[in-house]
Amino acid sequence: MFDLPQLGYEYDALEPHIDTETMKIHHSKHHQAYTDKFNAALQGYDDLLQKSAEEIIKQLDGVPDVIRKTVRNNGGGYINHNFFWKILKKDVEFKGEIADAINAKFGSFDKFKDDFTHAAATLFGSGWAWLVLNEGRLEIMQTHNQDSPLTERKIPLLCIDVWEHSYYLKYQNKRPDYIENFFKVINWEKVNELFKQAKG
Question: Quick check: pTM over 0.85?
Answer without folding.
Answer: yes
